[in-house]
Amino acid sequence: MSFSDIEKYLYPVQTYNTEKKENDMYDDWDEYEHTKNWINNIINEMQNGEDDILDIYYLEENNIVIGVICSLYGSNLINKFLIKNNINTEKKSAQLSCFHILKKYRGIGNKWLNDEVFKDLKSQGIQEIYIKSSHNKALSLYNRLGEVVGNYIGISDNNLYQRYGYVYKITL
């Protein structure tokens, strides 16, 4: 697997970045570049023999990807994520990242997560899901789905802004 095999699923992320720039909403945070780096790191770890698993869930309409979310689990990178965020758990856990839905379709995320993504992860033995987010529009959804178990301050790409974010735990 390579990044080019995955890139087609990231259309909602690319579209969101474009919308931010075209509407003078760019906040010095390039979600697409961060997602690309995150995925490439996972691919490199997997090529080094680690047992990490990256699942990509996506929604499609008329051959256009309208929503995407990535799930990472295994033992290597998820453990690094848990340690970095001061989370101590014995339960089989996954990290969700890169959750984007095209603007026209926003509002379907809760149903999609509950009916498809969480159901599938639970069938794979996942008991807890963790999500890091600093996106204000997503926080109300995450508050309904789970609980805040941590927070963080990230620095924007060019060190211009601080981004305050939360770590959520969703129990399946």
What's the SSE blueprint?
Elements lengths: L2 H4 L4 H12 L8 H17 L5 E9 L2 E10 L3 H8 L8 E9 L7 H15 L4 E6 L2 H10 L1 E9 L6 E10 L1
Parallel strand pairs: 3-4
Antiparallel strand pairs: 1-2, 2-3, 4-6, 5-6
Question: Brief description of this entry?
Answer:
The protein is built from six helices and six strands, in the order αααββαβαβαββ. The chain is α+β, with helices and mostly antiparallel strands and 172 residues long.
Account of the 3D structure:
This protein is an alpha+beta fold. The protein has 6 helices and 6 strands; from the N terminus they run H-H-H-E-E-H-E-H-E-H-E-E. Strands 1-2-3-4-6-5 form a 6-stranded mixed sheet, with helices on both faces. The mean pLDDT is 93.
Rg computed from alpha carbons, rounded to a whole number of angstroms: 16 Å
Which word captures the global form? globular
The percentage helix is: 25-40%
| Strand/helix succession | HHHEEHEHEHEE
- Our estimate of the beta-strand percent is 25-35%
Q: What do the pLDDT scores average to? A: 93
What structural class is derived from the secondary structure elements?
Answer: alpha+beta
How is the biggest beta sheet arranged?
A: 6 strands, mixed
- Strand runs, count: 6
Strand order of the largest sheet: 1-2-3-4-6-5
Low-confidence stretches: none
Termini separation (Å)?
29 Å
Secondary structure tally, helices = 6
